[in-house]
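This entry is listed as follows:

___
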Amino acid sequence: MSVSRLDLEGSTRRALPPSSRIDWHDHARHQLIYPSRGVLEVSTAAGTWVVPPHRAVWIPATVAHSHRAHGPTEMRTLLFEPEVNPLRLDEPTVLAVTPLMREVIVALTDDTGLTDPQRRNLQAVALDQLCRVESLALRLPSPADPRLRDLTGILTDDPADRRTLAELGRAVGASERTLSRLFREQTGMTFPQWRAQLRLHHSLTLLATGASVTEVATASGFRSPSAFIEVFRHAFGVTPGRYAGG
């Protein structure tokens, strides 16, 4: 994995075409990334985080990561000095974004006419809001064991694959019991939990492309559109149709 060092001067706003990628890199400062449009997928050696609209991801300084845009994406970023880490986070974390936080990010990334005192005041508000936000369980851990990596690769390529853990085990050369233990040890999740998270991740990326709820449910491996709607509403608080409509 080749990693480059980027250290931007301040707040940025960048349009990313669908399926575009930003290769592996890191920053000397912490980065808060807010996709005001589209869905952003952030990957590190430890796993993948999917960042839907009106959510943000905190990426600690020096953590190597890459990005991929799903759907037309607008990425807004704020940078913070290494000693400024209000949530004391040491890995990327998806955060809820309050309406006030959203407006502050937009102001800092849109308004080039801000004076230095105005910018500092807005940055102070952003830090205050960061201390109040809720972290969201949108991480999909990456295992290290080669058998698990083969298995998760199969499902990542086709989240609708309905094979059981035992059947997948035969494909990768490991028993169901061994794989079940490894999932808990290396991802902190059971196999069903990991697969459910993968399917939710996949559904977010498909919704960003404009696919219908029925198409997304089928492609993501849900039993029916109604089952997908229920799982999605439980995870995100809204139906996928309302979510896709903004």
The beta strands are 4-6, 12-16, 21-27, 30-44, 47-51, 55-59, 65-80, 93-96, 135-136, 139-141.
